[in-house]
Write a structure and sequence with these properties.
The complex is a heterodimer of chains A (139) and B (478). Chain A has 139 residues and is mostly helical. Chain A is built from 5 helices and no strands. Chain A has helices spanning 2-17, 20-34, 41-53, 62-74, 84-100. In chain A, α2 (20-34) packs across α4, α2 (20-34) crosses α5 (84-100) and α4 (62-74) packs across α5. Chain A is globular and about 45 Å long. With 478 residues, chain B is of the alpha/beta class. Chain B is built from 10 helices and 16 strands. Chain B is globular and about 70 Å long. Classes of the chains: A mainly alpha (139), B alpha/beta (478). Chains A and B meet through α5 of A and loops of B.
Chain lengths: 139, 478
């Protein structure tokens, strides 16, 4: 009983201390791995650092950040959690930010090519770059 | 004290369209004073800020949330831009017209309130407003039009084309003030997806199209000047009271036009002692929710701009007796489905529901003469009934598409950025605050402009309609 309680406290402490940055990193690494992208962890770390410098996550509501931070710890454990769709959508945002900050779209979304972090995607620095718009799919 | 022929409060859509028509009709002999509570924060400086090198003088501008008192901010936001050009600085540029039936929903469906004017009354002014805004739109529309849109329509995506083939004029390229070709000093939209502040200055703003109005020799504009009261004698408005650098000033005017947003227009009226039952009441806006439609073997690509289309399939009909009309927007932001080969086998659609103005949701005066207080208890159950049917309706409406799955977000967005009502329009004084020409029922030299006057709000974006009303009010009155 004591050991179960201690383990629970340890897990709880780990999760509550685990940072949002860790969640972002683990989400990207996991998603990239699941879908077979070629990306090294150092590229993900560079993105995380760049995102912090650019204050990228300041626009994320606190609840969304907390959802990501907590759920990222449980993902892969096979536990069905409530609001899993919201977690999935939030993950999509994280991954989208990452993909747009790499050479991925410049390489024509070719997953066989190694991904490199370039700079944090900012439409005010690089406008007109929706890769799915009529500019890239004319007619 | 100085005297003016017209004192205009605010510089957003409502004020600027009114001023344009007023100057056309009255000529240069009339003296106009414009009182703007904020500053001139130019587009170029806003862009600088987004690129990380904004000028310090704009760093401490008040947030909209700091301009009023609201005890319940977590549940609901009221968003606007309290500076020159008003919400033209933060709008997305969507300009669908209202449908003819929107003006008579009480008669047709027994809910809400009829407008004291018809679609035919406003139609010529819709045309004029669309010309001024430089609206891009299609030939076929679900609302009648007597004039073509001035700019060619936005491009449809591959998914849009399939849906349009099924629904025709109920699913159209979104009428929008995001230019499809260069117009004036505006560039063509290139789908950057951040319309709140357009990186290429494509969407219409007061700054990029109507700034010249405020530079005419007979028009004087004062910034940092918040009107918070009116001076009234014998049911005539004699002038306004405004706060500038901590001190109150009074100025006289023959005619006064309130073009602040519905929160501040009604606050000024209440501060001036307007005792109409409806003044301040009915505060509302639409409620929006997103859904994701995942496709099997169908890419959603090739559309232009941030929103490609408007769908009217869930908008008008007898269902409005039971639940809200809903306008559909198909998004074209830079979202991706994170699965190789399925990047864009996904549509992100927004479903926007009309609310019914509720008298208990209202603006009241507070102890601070500059800050209205908002009492808001939530939207009408009419909206929830529509939301509860949304997933079923999506499956019905889009059943012909190769849907893999549908995911509906169960939360409403905090805001649709469309504050409405609080000084509703009516034929008789006992049923509203202003008449069909936007003139106050009691104070006959006072105009109340903007979406404050909407008796019912529809699910469609309000800017085109409120701009058209301003043109109509000035055209009929001067």
């Amino acid at each position: 009983m004591v050991s179960v309680g201690a383990a629970a406290v340890t897990v709880g402490t780990y999760i509550s201390c685990s940072s949002f940055d860790n969640a972002v990193r683990s989400i990207i690494v996991r998603e990239m791995s699941v879908f077979g992208y070629k990306v090294e962890v150092k590229e993900v770390m560079a993105f995380v650092a760049g995102a912090n410098k650019a204050r990228l996550w300041e626009s994320f509501p606190i609840l969304k950040k907390e959802l990501l931070r907590w759920y990222a710890q449980f993902e892969g454990l096979g536990i069905k959690l409530p609001a899993s769709d919201k977690y999935k959508w939030a993950k999509q945002e994280i991954v989208r930010q990452f993909l747009f900050s790499t050479n991925f779209f410049y390489e024509g979304m070719d997953v066989s090519k190694p991904m490199h972090y370039l700079r944090i995607y900012n439409p005010y620095d690089v406008p007109c770059c929706n890769p799915f718009s009529n500019m890239y799919y004319p007619g | 004290m100085d005297g003016y022929d017209l004192i205009l409060v605010g510089t957003g859509f409502a004020s600027s369209f009114f001023l344009k028509k007023y100057l056309e009709k009255s000529g240069k002999s009339k003296k106009v004073l414009v009182l703007e509570r904020g500053v001139f924060y130019p587009h170029s400086a806003r862009l600088d800020s987004k690129r990380g090198h904004g000028a310090p003088k704009f760093a401490d501008l008040p947030s909209p949330d700091d301009t009023f008192i609201f005890d319940n901010r977590d549940k609901k936001s009221w968003v606007f831009d309290p500076n020159f050009g008003g919400s033209s600085n933060c709008w997305v540029g969507c300009t669908p017209r209202f449908l003819p039936n929107d003006f008579k929903i009480k008669t047709l469906y027994g809910i809400g309130y009829d407008w004291p004017l018809t679609y035919d009354d406003i139609e010529p002014y819709y045309c004029d407003a669309e010309d001024i805004l430089g609206v891009a739109g299609p030939e076929l529309t679900p609302f009648p039009k007597s004039r073509k849109y001035p700019l060619p329509p936005q491009h449809l995506s591959t998914v849009d084309k399939i849906i349009q083939e099924r629904y025709g004029k109920l699913f159209i390229s979104q009428p929008t003030a995001r230019a499809t070709v260069p117009v004036g000093i505006r560039n063509a939209c290139c789908s950057s997806g951040v319309c709140k502040l357009c990186p290429v200055d494509s969407k219409f703003t007061i700054e990029n199209t109507l700034l010249y109005l405020y530079r005419q020799s007979n028009v004087q504009i004062k910034y940092n000047s918040q009107v918070h009261n009116l001076r009234i004698e014998n049911n005539q408005v004699k002038g306004v009271v405004y706060r500038y650098e901590g001190k109150d000033y009074e100025v006289n005017g023959e005619v006064v036009a309130l073009g602040a947003n519905p929160i501040f227009n009604s606050h000024i009226l209440l501060s001036a002692g307007d005792n109409s039952y409806y003044t301040g009441r009915g505060l509302c806006e639409q409620r929006g929710a997103f859904a994701r439609l995942y496709f099997e073997g169908l890419d959603n690509v090739g559309g232009s701009s941030i929103i490609t289309t408007n769908g009217f399939m869930l908008y008008d009909g007898v269902h409005r007796k039971e639940y809200s009309a809903c306008l559909i927007e198909n998004s074209n932001t830079v979202f991706v489905r994170n699965e190789p080969g399925k990047w864009r086998k996904l549509a992100l659609m927004k479903f926007i529901f009309e609310d019914i103005p509720n008298d208990n949701n209202r603006v009241v005066i507070s102890e601070d003469p500059l800050k209205p207080k908002i009492e808001y208890s939530g939207h009408d159950p009419y909206v929830d009934r529509a939301k509860n049917k949304l997933e079923d309706n999506i499956r019905k409406v889009f059943s012909f598409l190769p849907l893999e799955r549908v995911e509906v977000d169960d939360f409403f967005q905090k805001t649709e950025f469309h504050i409405c009502s609080t000084a509703r329009m009516s034929r008789i004084p006992s049923e509203g605050v202003v008449d069909q020409n936007l003139i106050h029922h009691k104070f006959r030299n006072l105009f109340v402009l903007g979406s404050a006057v909407f008796p019912s709000i529809t699910p469609a974006n309000p800017t085109l309609t409120l701009s058209s009303l301003s043109l109509m009010a000035a055209d009929r009155s001067f």
